[in-house]
Amino acid sequence: MEMYRISESDETVILRYTNTASCGEPRFVAEDLDTEIHFGKFWVPNPRDSYSIIAKGDSMIEARIFDGDMLVIDCSMEPQMHKIVVAWLNGELTIKRLGAIGGQIALVPANANYKPIIITDEDEFQILGVVTSVHRHI
Description:
Layout: E1 3-5, E2 14-17, E3 35-38, H1 39-43, E4 50-54, E5 70-74, E6 84-89, E7 92-101, E8 104-108, E9 117-118, E10 125-135
Antiparallel strand pairs: 1-4, 2-3, 4-5, 5-10, 6-7, 6-10, 7-8, 8-9
């Protein structure tokens, strides 16, 4: 996995926002919104302390994080239980949900084919940031 710093200048990307569209039954929309959305501020509200990383593998598919997705992680956010984090574990990066098992910190996959990783005193372990958004090409 490679991590990429997000430039503060990325917050200047502006997209035209015209309206919403239904994913259910089609519906008529009488008013046409014509405004702008600041893409960077919407997806990366804290660019100074944020990085991007490309997900590899399938251990987080039940959290809708798939191989090749680009994740934005915020290093300034306080990691909380049940949040998805990027962690450094024994020289490798991993993306997992932060949890606890038997009173010990655990990195919990979102795929039943994988077991949680319980962190011990012998592990080199550091949480690098909290995942704030997932992006993929369709």
